[in-house]
Amino acid sequence: MSGLLQNIFKGDPNAPSAAPSSGDDADPASASTPGAAGTPQSATRGALPAAADHARPYTAWYRVWERHSRQDFVQEAFVIPFIACLLLLHVWGMGKNRRKAKKWAQAHLPILQSEFAVVGYGGVGARRAPSADNVQAEGLPAAAASADLVVPESVLKEKTGTEFATYATGRQNVAFLDVSIKLFRWYNPLYMLGDSVISMFLDSWPVPVERVQCTAYAFDGKERDLVPAPSAVEKELIEQRTKGANNSSYDGFVFAVVHKNCMRRLREDRYDISLTFTKDNPKLPEWATVMSESAEITELMLTADLIKAIEEAGEDFEYLIITDQPLDKPTKIDETTPGKRINLSLCLPKSNSYSSTLPIFTYFLRLTDRVVSTAHFRAEVVRKLRNTRDEEVRKLRRAHDEEKNEERKALVEKTKKEERDRLLRGMSAEEQRKYLEKERERETRRGMKKSVKRG
């Protein structure tokens, strides 16, 4: 643009200049010698053909191939394939995670639909799974491997590219079930590599693992508050089912069977596990241990079926926790309200065959029934459990009272300071001096009394 304006206002630099004026009005100093005048002209004439050789020929706007060459697109030749590879890798990674989550749902949908009335976020699935009797007759592996099993889109919800979730409800003693499937970032291998490398050097950085985490929330005798009853007849029916022997409440406690590789992380991350003590059990494999609040609870909950299911799951088993305490340490008294639930965490098998983990998953779904029927302990055990929880409540109440006292003291000090400032503003300079001297004397006497008491 600057060159264009220069050409408009100053003319063409290659155009011949006007001949110098001759005569009396000519300036002798401005006249150049004949030899000097010829030198720039010859140089200009010699430069014109070279400039013309390098100039691009004028072509029509659509004749791009005549104005550009392959050398002009060297940068794009590297950038475009790189972006294409990233897009293909992202599509492949997302598809791999979706297929893996769908494979898990296909393997576990029969047992879920046989235990719960509603599975997923859209009601009953496209194909109803066989009844509980048929599942027991055919076996879970055969039912899960059936080719005609259709997994509805509403069964799984894709929260992120690495996390899928499902939901189930409509079962006695279980309010609802949450399942979370966490997978690798196959669509971002650099992130996966960074996670793996950092976890090798930092103990605080968890090792990336593909796992499924399930949480079953117990009714604990609150069916009337949690189950919607459209009519009075259904409401009365719910009340009758929750009375007497059908009552779903049980004593709150914390019990866990944990893989030893997860023991330290659970004790540091979960408040409820910190209330337990760890003790190896000879009935369990060497890589598993028990974390419980009482030996009587361990003897009652550690059944032969549970031990067999854990042995079949093998290294894919991480933990099974029965708890009534929050995950994070409560900071307020309201947060100590018990929420009874059962947690199960399993690593996804690398072979994509769930025959080894299906027994422990099935036991987990039916564990609430056993807890409701047997978790009614002796008075001594209940007293011990209650004392542990009451002690935590007392600590919170003590901390709350101390915080209130500090706030009260700060308010009193603030009121005294405002009153002192108000008095000083209404005094003359001499009165202020006397008032401050008396104040210093009182502080001195108070300090002397404290030192005498200490001595």
Largest sheet: 10 strands, antiparallel
Q: N-to-C SSE series?
A: HHHHEHHEEEHEHHEHEEHHEEHHH
As a percent range, the share of helical residues equals 40-55%
Distance between the termini: 91 Å
Give the overall pLDDT as a whole number.
80
Structural summary, described in words:
The protein is of the alpha+beta class. The protein has two domains: 81-384, no CATH class; 385-445. 51% of the residues lie in helices and 13% in strands. It contains 15 helices and ten strands. It has helices spanning 2-10, 34-54, 64-67, 74-115, 132-138, 140-144, 189-201, 223-226, 232-241, 260-269, 295-301, 304-313, 358-374, 379-425, 429-454, and strands at residues 118-119, 157-158, 163-171, 174-182, 211-218, 255-259, 277-279, 288-292, 317-323, 341-347. Strands 1, 2, 3, 4, 5, 6, 7, 8, 9 and 10 form a ten-stranded antiparallel beta sheet that branches. The relative contact order is 0.07.
What keyword list fits this structure?
membrane; 13% strand; 455 residues; CCDC47; calcium ion binding; alpha+beta; transmembrane; DUF1682 domain-containing protein; 10-stranded antiparallel sheet
Q: What are the SSEs and their pairings?
A:
Blueprint (H helix, E strand, L loop, with lengths): L1 H9 L23 H21 L9 H4 L6 H42 L2 E2 L12 H7 L1 H5 L12 E2 L4 E9 L2 E9 L6 H13 L9 E8 L4 H4 L5 H10 L13 E5 H10 L7 E3 L8 E5 L2 H7 L2 H10 L3 E7 L17 E7 L10 H17 L4 H47 L3 H26 L1
Antiparallel strand pairs: 1-3, 2-3, 3-4, 4-5, 5-10, 6-8, 6-9, 7-8, 9-10
Helix pairs in contact: 4-13, 12-13
